[in-house]
Amino acid sequence: MAVRSLWAGRLRVQCLLSSTAAWENKGWPLLFSTAIQRTAGEDCRSEDPPDELGPSLAERALRIKAVKLEKEVQDLTVRYQRAVADCENIRRRTQRCVEDAKIFGIQSFCKDLVEVADILEKTTECISEESEPGDQKLTLEKVFRGLSLLEAKLKSVFAKHGLEKLTPIGDKYDPHQHELICHVPAGVGVQPGTVALVRQDGYKLHGRTIRLARVEVAVESQRRL
User: Fold this and answer.
1) Theoretical Cys-Cys bridge with 212: which of 84, 91, 151, 179, CB 3.0 to 4.6 Å?
2) Phi first, then psi: what are they for 127, rounded to 5°?
3) Which parts of the chain are coiled coil (predicted)?
């Protein structure tokens, strides 16, 4: 664009110079030469924009864009810091909840066991205070009643908390639930490979075995160990 304007101004100047030369050859005064030259110069200046206008606009646009980007970076930085703080708070609360669950997770179970301890303590006190020397029958009856009440309470507490006693007699041997002590010969009505005798009861908590039952497993006579 600037090159075209330059060429247009140069052509005007050449035309003016040729006209001036023609007027001078004829001896006519150049009354409007100065005005014509001034007009030509103004036309050239009006068509050629200043060189400083382009760079200043571009620089201004870049500055505006830089300011916008800087604000966006600051906003994203603040959001990131808030997100990190929130995650840290959640982690701390979760860790506190886990620790509380470990400590107080058996609170309800312990509360029920306290009632069992109360029954045992009352039974012991009753036997020691009311029994007469030589009256062993009465003493044994009180002990039996106290132990029966204690057993019933324990079973109630176990059932309430999902603790179940394993009764594997006659069941097929399962290494995930039974601990084999020894083999015994299979008797009448006892199938080989099944539990013939329980030495120690096993327990499950909500379906998960927490203690294996110690058992004796029946085998055929020739396979006895």
Assistant:
1) 179
2) -70, -40
3) 59-93
Six-digit token string for 174: 């399962």
Residue 109 and residue 161 in contact, taking contact as beta carbons nearer than 8 Å? yes
Token couple for 54: 């382009």
Amino acid at 60: R
Share of the chain above pLDDT 70, in %: 70
Q: Tell which residue, 153, 212, 204, 149, has the closest CA to residue 178.
A: 212
CB 6, CB 47: distance < 8 Å: no
> 217 burial class (0-12, 13-18, 19+ CB within 10 angstroms)?
buried
- Strand 195-200's sheet: what is its strand order? 178-185, 213-219, 195-200
Cα separation, 177 vs 86, in Å, equals: 45
Q: Yes or no: is domain 163-224 CATH 2.30.22.10?
A: yes
Cross-strand bridge partners of residue 218: 184
